Backbone:
């Protein structure tokens, strides 16, 4: 077994779209030993790393909900893995954990900064950076805080992505009529297979016309993952007292001059609300969401798809592919084989 720990460092702040070769540096360091751990710390062998649009925002120095990643720091990222060394009395070797473990094969972290996980029936360890991780929690609380009612029209952009696909399925469970917006015909077909009532390709020249036709009673809830022109199209169709959930703006994260909404005055005329949220604010309620999501998963009411990239060294290019809409479902990086046990 290799005694080297592959790590990916954040090496240059990008302006506009990032170049993986300039933005990140791959380094090899010795795998930490028990002597490198302080009291309360653990060493985690990482199995899967989540790639998320939020990572682009973490590269910027603008005011945000979390401090930016520092230059030459291991790139931040949610991951799951197994404890291989421990100086924490509450966590033992062999325990599976989830946390901000970063872009590396092995991570030293304080035990209080991870969540111990035991996969539920029908679930895998990967689900804890997916449906039971930030992805699923974002979908659950972002949508349900608005209390969607049976018969509501819910529109979801980025609907074939990790969060959007779960949002649409939860909305269906709650009795809403759901319209998904995605970037290809194949993705639209997948959304219909998930149970979406309508799936629209935003690259279609007649997209605006088709969106209007699909929303004769306007949009009660628009779950926005993309921002830009699609947000404007949905503002034009917002219903009286409608709600726009600002979850993300992936179409704008790599723009040198991000575009704001042009038709925001619809919020005035329709007495509508547009509000952002950050999933960390709901951390104390995660067990409630996981209980519901587990039940729906076992009942077959929620399905998920994964897009897995093999090898940590491919994470930088994988992140760029995420912004190009390359994936359907949750994008993950397989860092280590969970079936191969470590002997440190």
Residues:
């Amino acid at each position: 077994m290799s005694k080297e720990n592959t790590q990916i460092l954040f090496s240059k702040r990008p302006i506009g779209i990032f170049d993986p070769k300039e933005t990140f540096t791959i380094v090899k360091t010795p795998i930490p030993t028990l002597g490198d751990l302080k009291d309360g710390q653990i060493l985690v062998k990482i199995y899967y790393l989540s790639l998320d649009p939020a990572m682009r925002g973490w590269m910027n120095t603008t005011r945000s909900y979390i401090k930016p990643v520092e230059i030459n720091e291991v790139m931040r990222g949610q991951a799951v893995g197994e404890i291989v060394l421990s100086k924490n009395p509450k966590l033992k070797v062999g325990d599976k954990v989830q946390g901000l473990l970063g872009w590396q094969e092995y991570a030293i972290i304080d035990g209080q900064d991870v969540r111990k996980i035991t996969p539920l029936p029908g679930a895998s360890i990967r689900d804890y950076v997916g449906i039971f991780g930030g992805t699923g929690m974002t979908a659950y609380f972002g949508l349900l805080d608005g209390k969607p009612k049976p018969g509501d029209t819910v529109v979801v952009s980025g609907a074939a992505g990790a969060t959007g696909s779960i949002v649409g399925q939860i909305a269906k469970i709650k009795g809403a009529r759901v319209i998904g917006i995605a970037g290809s015909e194949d993705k639209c077909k997948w959304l219909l297979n998930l149970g979406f009532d309508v799936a629209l390709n935003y690259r279609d020249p007649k997209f605006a016309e088709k969106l209007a036709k699909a929303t004769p009673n306007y949009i009660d809830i628009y779950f926005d993952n993309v921002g830009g022109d699609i947000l404007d199209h949905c503002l034009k169709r917002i219903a009286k007292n409608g709600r726009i959930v600002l979850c993300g703006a992936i179409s704008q994260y790599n723009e040198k001059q991000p575009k704001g909404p042009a038709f925001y005055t619809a919020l005035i005329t329709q007495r509508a609300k547009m509000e952002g949220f950050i999933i960390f604010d709901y951390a104390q309620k995660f067990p409630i969401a996981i209980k519901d999501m587990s039940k729906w998963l076992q009942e077959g009411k929620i399905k998920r798809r994964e897009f897995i990239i093999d090898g940590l060294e491919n994470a930088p290019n994988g992140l760029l592919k995420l912004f190009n809409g390359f994936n359907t479902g949750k994008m993950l990086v397989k860092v280590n084989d969970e079936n191969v046990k470590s002997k440190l």
Summary: The longest helix spans residues 286-298.
